[in-house]
Amino acid sequence: MQQDLVLLGGGHANIQVLRNFGMLPMPGVRVTLITLEAETPYSGMLPGFLSGFYTFDEMHIDLVRLTQWAGARLILANAQGIDTQGQTVLLCDRPSQHYDVLSINVGICPALSPVLGAEANVIPVKPISRLVSRLEALLIRANAADLPLQVAVVGGGASGVELACAISYRLMRERRAAGIMSTTVTVSLISRGPILQKFDRGIRKAFLLLLQLCAAPSSDGFLLVDEYLKSAGGPSNVFAAGDVASSITCPRPKAGVFAVRAGAPLAHNLRRTLSGGPLRRWAPQATFLSLITAGDRHAVATKGGWLGMQGRWVWQVKDCIDRAFVNRFGADLDYASMERHALPARALHPSLSTNELRLHAAAKGRCGGCGSKIGGASLRRVLQQLSTSANVQHGVLVGFIQADDAAVLELPPLGHVAVQSVDFFRASGFVTDPYLLGQIAANHALSDIHAMGATPQSALAVAVVPFAALGMMEDELHQMMAGALSTMLHSDCALVGGHSSEGTELALGFAVYGSAPRNALLTLRGMRVGQTVILTKPIGTGTLLAAAMQGGSRGRWVTGAVESMKQSNGPALAVLRAHHCQACTDVTGFGLLGHLAEMARASKVVVSLSTADVPLLDGALSCASAGYLSSLHPENKTDAAQVVDAGTSLTAGMFSLLVDPQTAGGLLASLPDERAESCIEALRRAGYSHAAAVGRVASKLPESSTVCVSLSRPL
């Protein structure tokens, strides 16, 4: 990798660039999408969604799936600025992201602050993701009581008319379904000028016949671009399209059609900028076909401001066009073609120059051993950046800031014992954001210390970064270690040093050192008959990540799994201790059944597991039932068969989840039955919303038996 193409925002133009680069990868170019949401809505289907004709999934494009297919990195983060001199996108609460070429397609949102009372009472249409959640609240309110309801839509253009129609239709339909017939729903359309003033009288008349509208009176903030979609008068490596951009050569109204049409010329000019070729001018069409919906599957067709046709069949045409566009980025993607990312450079791009081919050859011929270490100057620059971040220093005599041969730590106080563990895993495609990988890897490694009832004190890292241009390797190492450092800091654990190396893919591991009072350790052997078994976090990360790598998951399911993997077990340990926990482990690679069986065997007891009470991550059962299983699943399943009495009927999907390997899973603990209810309440107050009692220690384990777990009905 030699150059970073960063796509800021998952708008209609940028997703076409992503698809374009996925279909024909550009050797030496790493593509990164930075967006706040894992699923991006297609604005053309918004009125139909508000009317209730489309589901959330039908209207949205899954960016997790699209980036996975395209071989691109996905960073879910909030951008707060762009440093054009340093060529970085400034991100909230994490390091900035470098770019060589930047494409901006973030959309727009209204400025509410100048309007008195707007921030408290107005629902902005954009960003659409927030509108969706607010719509659900509005529908609940509309159906809660038989009272008159008044809604106002501000803006008399085509979008405002569509939204007014859609909201009116949806509210009346929902109220009828709820049995509310006696009171009215009033939707008013407020416009500065005439409704649909840019359209001819025929169109306005057509819509006024469809609706009874209440009309009342009621180029700042956009990025200027030239005929190449390049920043006008700004840096030559920054491009923009969609609502966020305003053309100085061909001004056009803010409409989704222009973002869609800009996708192909934007991708072309980004490629030309990366390769040093001439750019191509683009002039958006002066007129375009508008299909304006009117609530109940009725639409009006217009072009150039003139009335065309209207009726139900026009809506059906629009429906076909919209679905076809969304499917290009979802249902129509061929995951078998992902193998193209592993093709030889010459096969991918026959026009590669000799120098570009040498770059690929150099990547294959890199040294091993100490020759594979990241260079000293690069490492010093990364450590210098990390040293400006907060880091735990108590108990550390020599750490990475001093850059000595080894870390030097104070011994634990008298009466305490040292607790050590090591963990390591590859990104392997399921996490493409190095900062996020650092957070998850650190949390996963710390979890073993928490499971022993100990306090983490220090950690050594082993980091592997794929061969790339020097600056890109430095940036990736910095991002990954900064993510790890942020997690270590929250657990009051010092990052004291480590080792870095080049490799074929991103990977990170930690050797973690902690301590605990000798008589306060939690082990597998503390289960007692009559105790309740509690699980602090839901399961399902293995199947969800396996599905994501094969295009079978949904973006929100994956982000839910990621949030669970980022959640530390440290606060949960404190709650369990306060409720007299006597045995504990963390649920990781062996799955829930495997780790529960380890505890039961060590304690010489039989545990009754209530499968219906086991908390599951959203989407996990769907993915497991569809056959998306982790590579460790078969061995876990075989092991479980030796120790589990499946006395109750289980679906194949549910049993698969019970042996599903977890990354950074929750704590599994046993404690006195009388403490269980208050413990679960305390865990939920501490942020473990899925914490649940999942079983009971039923009896002692007969000496002649290996079956230490039985599956039962709900507790």
Please explain how this structure is put together.
By secondary structure, the protein is an alpha/beta fold. The protein is built from 23 helices and 30 strands. The protein has a seven-stranded mixed β-sheet. Mean pLDDT is 85; it is low at 213-217 and 339-358.
Concise summary:
Helix content is 37%, strand content 22%. The chain is built from 23 helices and 30 strands. Mean pLDDT is 85; it is low at 213-217 and 339-358.
* Strand arrangement across the biggest beta sheet: 25-28-24-29-26-30-27
Could you state the oligomeric state of the chains shown?
A: single chain
Largest sheet: 7 strands, mixed
Structural class: alpha/beta
Strand content: 15-25%
Low-confidence region ranges: 213-217, 339-358
Helix content: 25-40%
The rounded Rg comes to 29 Å
Q: Mean pLDDT, as a whole number?
A: 85
Number of strands: 30
Shape: globular
N-C termini distance: 54 Å
Q: How many helix segments? A: 23
Write the layout of secondary structure elements.
Elements: E1 3-8, H1 12-23, E2 29-35, E3 39-41, H2 46-51, H3 56-59, E4 60-62, H4 63-70, E5 73-76, E6 79-83, E7 88-91, E8 97-98, E9 101-104, H5 118-121, H6 128-144, E10 149-154, H7 158-177, E11 185-190, H8 201-210, E12 223-225, E13 238-240, E14 245-247, H9 256-275, E15 289-293, E16 299-303, E17 306-311, H10 312-327, H11 345-348, H12 354-364, H13 376-387, E18 396-398, E19 408-409, E20 416-426, H14 434-451, E21 455-466, H15 470-490, E22 494-503, E23 507-517, E24 532-535, H16 541-549, H17 555-566, H18 570-578, E25 583-586, H19 591-603, E26 605-610, H20 620-625, H21 633-643, E27 644-645, H22 652-658, E28 667-671, H23 673-685, E29 692-700, E30 709-712
Parallel strand pairs: 1-2, 1-9, 2-5, 9-13, 10-11, 12-14, 21-22, 26-30, 27-30
Antiparallel strand pairs: 3-4, 6-7, 7-8, 15-16, 16-17, 18-19, 20-23, 21-23, 24-28, 24-29, 25-28, 26-29
